[in-house]
Amino acid sequence: MTDLEHQVFTQVRAIISNEEQVIGRRGILIPLKKAIIADGDIRNVIDIVSSDPALAAHMLWRSQTASCVSSKSSKNRSLKDALVRLGQVNIYRYAFTFYLKERLDELPQPYKKLVYGYWALTESIATDAVDSLHMMEGVDINPDEVQTLALFSVFGEIIALTAFAYLNAESEESFPLSIIKSLIDNQKQTLTIEAFESLGLDEELKDEFMIAHNLRQTRDPNSPGLVLRRVLSMRNQLLKPL
Fold first, then answer.
1. Staple 129 to which of 57, 104, 150, 199, CB 3.0 to 4.6 Å?
2. Cis peptide before 110, with omega less than 30 degrees from 0?
């Protein structure tokens, strides 16, 4: 690593450690996390999600994309139905990715275009992972757990590029894109793990992410990470290739 790369690497990691700077809009996420940790009445969670109509609509959409229910009578007809079915951990993961995507909309070019490429890849991986799950037999895996996990498939790249955009916006000198490309190529695992640790995501998500990227092994046949690992391997996206 060159001196300049090391300088940028240090500064990018500092930005990643600042949860509010990376995610931005915390007005919903903070009380939502508190309500989930308290493990109280689901009505509190419903009220918090309902306070942002855009988030509520997103939750309904995500719930339908993961469940792939063909019968109209079985589909979630209300936000309450959707949130009860999703479970509180998945609710927070979906909300986190929703506000992360909202934050990405604010990035200047060319970072916005580049990070949108990663986001499109993430959505595509999520679709493939859920489709793969629905073709499997003899497993008991929640499709929303597969989808929420898959939405973090290239989490490190997205967060690192976002942090680099903020760094260049605040710095007196402009660092070339080749610097962050080199860091993503060579320090992806470090950046990703630090992002998980800094941004308050649940430990189970991190564990399954490690399984998905072949950084940890499991004998659990119902691991969402194993479902995602197959998709990531086919797309050459594993942090540790098979």
1. 150
2. yes
- Nearest to 129, CA basis, from 26, 20, 230, 51: 230
pTM of the full predicted structure? 0.90
Q: Give CA–CA dist 90/98, Å, rounded.
A: 12
The Cα–Cα gap between 169 and 164 comes to 9
* Residue 69: per-residue pLDDT: 44
The set of long-range contacts for 222-230, using a CB threshold of 8 Å and a minimum separation of 24, is 222/139, 222/140, 222/141, 223/141, 224/141, 224/142, 224/145, 224/146, 224/149, 225/149, 227/129, 227/132, 227/133, 227/136, 227/139, 227/141, 227/146, 228/125, 228/129, 228/146, 228/149, 228/150, 228/153, 230/132
**Are the C-beta atoms of 198 and 160 separated by less than 8 Å?**
no
| Biggest CA-to-CA distance, the chain | 61
Per-residue tokens: 112? 């916005």
User: What does the angle CA 113 – CA 116 – CA 121 come to, to the nearest 5 degrees?
Assistant: 135
Contact of 224 with 145, CB cutoff 8 Å: yes
Q: Which of 4-13, 25-34, 106-115, 149-158 has the lowest mean pLDDT?
A: 25-34
Q: Distance between CA 64 and CA 75 in Å, rounded?
A: 7
Q: What CA–CA distance (Å, rounded) separates 122 from 96?
A: 14
Whether the CB-CB separation of 26 and 92 falls below 8 Å is answered with no
1, pLDDT greater than 90: no
Judge contact between 160 and 16, C-beta under 8 A. yes
